[in-house]
Amino acid sequence: MRLGVFGKGRLGSAIAECAGSDLAWCIGRNGLPLEGVDVAIDASSGASVAEHLDWCIQHGTDFLIGTTGWDMPNLAERVGQKIAVLTAPNFSLTVAVYTRLSLILARFAAMDESRDPYLVEHHHARKHDAPSGTAKLLATTLMKGCPRKTEWVIPSISQDVKPFQLSVSSIRAGYTYSSHTVGLDSPGEVIELHHSARSAMPFAEGALQAARWIQGRKGLFTMDQVAKELLDPLFLEVNP
């Protein structure tokens, strides 16, 4: 597999390092590569995704979008069956496990209105978007499991959080690479699930796994479909 990486930030550099001899090129946000590859991974910026997608379609290159802050409502139409495109707010398989556990927690909250779910995420001070893409994924998961929560909000001092709203808080401080906490607060107890990444390496390793998975396919996919094959058997009941 010949691999190309858009972006030389923390994630892009980690993917390039993990790729080893499979790496054909790793370029910054500006400019386009001259050499075609089997799969290209975008770890640059949301503003560059459309241009990189056009390049991949033109060169018949499968494309993984690992950056946030982009919006393309016609993505499926643009991709069609030309190439394979996989979108992932988070490439980590551990986060995929965490998301599934969060769904179980949300379903538990749905059983009793006194169990109030919430989400807190913490990233380093230089991260621009808030909430993170992973936080938005987790918020969507919590609302799926607990249908009485129909929207997420970032609380403010001047406005109360309504019963139908999921409270999401973002911290931008220091050097923490990635930290997410999903919890339930009830009158008698609190339960929390916490995931913290020490570096970009877990996401880089997951990106390479997704790059291998996507080859030979056509259309639009998500990281959840990659994780489904590997993780869902863990949640099957096993009789001793």
Neighbour order of strands in the largest sheet: 2-1-3-4-5-11
**What oligomeric assembly is this protein in?**
single chain
The number of E-state strands comes to 11
Proportion of strand residues: 25-35%
Biggest sheet architecture: 6 strands, parallel
Which bin fits the share of residues in helices?
25-40%
Give me the CATH architecture of the largest domain, please.
3-Layer(aba) Sandwich
Shape: globular
**At the fourth CATH level, what is the homologous superfamily of the largest domain?**
NAD(P)-binding Rossmann-like Domain
Order of helices and strands: EHEEHEHEHEHEEEEHEH
Rg over CA atoms: 19 Å
Total domain count: 2
Q: Any idea of the CATH class of the largest domain?
A: Alpha Beta
CATH topology category name of the largest domain: Rossmann fold
Number of helical regions: 7
CA-CA gap between termini: 41 Å
Mean pLDDT: 92
Low-confidence regions:
none
Helix/strand/pairing class, anyone? alpha/beta
Could you explain how this protein is built, in words?
With 240 residues, this protein is of the alpha/beta class. It has two domains: 3-87 and 201-234, NAD(P)-binding Rossmann-like Domain (Rossmann fold, 3-Layer(aba) Sandwich), CATH 3.40.50.720; 93-197, Dihydrodipicolinate Reductase, domain 2, CATH 3.30.360. The protein is built from seven helices and eleven strands. It has helices at residues 10-19, 49-59, 75-79, 93-110, 133-145, 201-214, 223-231, and strands spanning 3-6, 23-27, 39-42, 62-65, 84-87, 116-123, 151-153, 165-172, 178-185, 190-197, 219-222. The protein has a six-stranded parallel β-sheet with strand order 2-1-3-4-5-11, sandwiched between helices. α1 (10-19) crosses α6 (201-214). The longest helix has 18 residues, at 93-110. The protein is globular, with a radius of gyration of 19 Å. The N and C termini lie far apart (41 Å). The model has no long low-confidence stretch (mean pLDDT 92).
